[in-house]
Each structure stands twice: as structure tokens, then as C-alpha cells.
Amino acid sequence: MKNNGTGAELQNLLRENGNLCVSIIFPANPVASQRIKDKITLDKKLEEANSLIDAYAKKQKLEGVDKLKKKLRSLYEKIDFSQAKEGAGIYVSGKIGLLKYFDFPVKEKVIVGASFQVRDLLFQSGLSKEYYTLMLSMNGIHLFRCSVERFEEIKDGNFPKKFADTFEYEKPSRGNKKNNAVRNPEGDKSVKVQKRMETFFRSADHKLSAYLSAGSPLFVAGVKKDIAIFMQVSSHGKSVAGKIEGNFEHGSLRKLEQTAWKKMQALIQSNRKKELKKLEEAPDSRFAMGIRDAWEETYEGKGLELFVEKDYSKTAFAGETPGKISLRTSPSKKNRIIRDAVDDLVEMVLSKNGRVQLFENGDLEKYDRVALLKRY
Fold it and tell me: With 0-12 CB in 10 A as exposed, 13-18 as middle and 19+ as buried, what is 351?
């Protein structure tokens, strides 16, 4: 999945497991003019993170955390609150310093421990799938490379393509002796323009192969007639995920960007529903439901694909038996508290080369928020 670096960033964060890791996630104020309050809130979160770093370092007998605190402060000072969209995340360790903006609502978190909180990055990765928007008109064809984070026109040797209509008008004339009807040059012109448009759109369609080879979806925009001509001659019909009717030639690119993204969001949601069918169709022997069963199966290496709600959190307790957790409080001093077993489960699945699918809150209610497809 192409995601403008999110996948590579995620892998880098996972490699830091076992080291001191700091994750600060904060939501942005929905009212842009009120975002000065975000800075005040984050100031407090930074103080909280520093206190947690000191406590963790003391418990683990770590030294040299002042350098990590400076890195945390440096990233904090780089935050552009006007660009924070729905929220932002700061990720810091000895080797990592990452600032990430989110395009979906996030919950406030300050986590200091032996691993990063990666679920928000995973969800952002799902939104960051690359897609293309093709804008058609009689004047030319423009191709845009898009994701939730960008809407950029491609300007290379293939696009944009300019259409030149060189049809020459003719004076009305009589036909031959057998047919004395007056010929209509305007009718001839419309037929020829139609043919030239087909040729023009077909030539542009051939160029699309270089961009759609990775299976990226394509949205086709233009007036209804132009879209119809393109679909008639295109060899990329299976890649077309939607059509956007309208004339976007004159100053309407922002509207085109917004409409294309709404259609992409609908496609992402549709694909999530298709993924859920895997759970509905899975035999009982290949399926585990709930955090405890999913944990045990993953520990044994059986976790193929984890389905989990993006904000679901659960405290658990690990005893002396490897791979077993309890969800009830135990007075035994031998039990280790797992503050968020869901995050640890996500990391465990990924570390064992499994896949993780994140869903909106409530989508997995009938599966107790967590479900696992097993390898065998």
C-alpha cells in the first residue's frame, strides 16, 4: 500500500521495541481560530511526558534521558497548529524523532514505555492510499496524483495533454446530381470532432498504464458527454472507481479535490465492509474473538490478520504462564500489568508478519472489538 512514507515510518517505529519510546497524541481544536488553546494543552502534555520519562528511567535504571527530552522539545516547537488538521502525534526514542499530522479524529494519549503507540499511524496509513483523478475536457486532459495528504497535478511528458481542433469550416454545397440536398458542414464537423475526441481520449488512456500499474483507483471527472466518450474507448475500466460530473476547467480544482476525496473515503469504507466478510465467512477453527483469545493464538504464531477498533483499549495482566493474559485484577505480585493489551497485541501481530486492519469504533461490536483470523 502506497502511503507517502507512513509504512516505512511505521516499520522504523516497530524496530524500536524494547527501547525507551515516547508517544504523544493530541486532537486539534475543530475551530481554527481557537487552536491557540492546543498549544496550552500540549504544553501540559509535554510536562507530563517529561515526568513519565523520569519515572521510567528511574525504574529501568536508564541514563542520558535529557537528550531524549531535548529531541521531544525540538519536535514540539516544529508543530504548525494551523496545519494540524484533526490532530498530531510526536514519536521520540533514541533513534526516532517523528512529527505526524492526522486526517481523522484522535484521542489524547501520552505513553512512555518500551514501544510506541502505533495504531493512529496504522489508521492514517489506511487513509493514505494513493489514487488518481483524471480531468477531461475538450481543451485538454489533466491527471492528478492524490491521497488524503495531497492533490498534485502530474506534469511530465505524458500529461497534461492538449486537444487541438483543426477542423476547417466549409461553405454549404449541393450534393451530386442524384442527391440535390444541401450538405450540412456543421453536422460533418460534429461527427469529426467526436471521432477526434475519441482518438484524443484513447491516446491519453494508453498513457495511464504507467501510473495505474500498482492497482491505484482512478476517478474520472468532466461533463457527462466527455466521461461517456472516455469510458467507451478506455482500456482501464476496471480501475475506474468513480465518476465526477461537472466542468472543472475554470478555477474549480478545490471543489474537484474535495469531491474526489469524498469518493475515495466512500471507497475505503466499502473496502472495510468487504474485509469484514472474511470474519463472517471464516470457519470457527480459523477464528478467534476477543482480546484474550486473540492474544493466545497470536503468541503461538497463528495470527494471520487482526481486526480491531482503532480506539479500543484494555488493561490486562500477564502471569507466569507464557502467552496467557487475564482481564481481571489479580492480587498476585507476580502478575505484570499490561496497560493497553490491545496495542501490545497489534505490535505482536505485526512482529510475526501478520496484518492489522483497523476499523471505526463500533464496527466490531459483535466481535467484542477484537477478532483474529488464524493461519491454521
Answer: middle
Rounded distance, CA 259 to CA 41, Å?
Answer: 34
Backbone angles phi, psi at 188, to 5 degrees: -60, -40
In which region does residue 143 sit, left (phi positive, over 0), alpha (psi from -120 to 50) or beta (all else)? beta
Element (H, E) at 371: strand 370-374
Mean pLDDT, the chain, whole residue set: 88
Alpha helices by DSSP H, listed for the chain, are 6-14, 36-60, 65-78, 119-127, 185-207, 209-212, 224-233, 253-281, 291-299, 341-351
Burial class (CB in 10 A: 0-12, 13-18, 19+), 264: buried
Q: Which residue has the cell 482518438?
A: 199
pLDDT tens digit string along 61-116?
998 899 999 999 999 999 887 777 889 999 999 999 999 999 999 999 999 999 99
Rg from Cα positions in the chain = 28
CB 162 within 8 A of CB 139: yes
Residues 43, 186: Cα–Cα separation, whole Å: 70
Give all domains of the chain, ordered by start, each with its CATH number. 1-128 (3.30.960.10), 131-272 (3.30.420.60), 282-376 (3.30.1330.30)
4: its cell numbers: 507517502
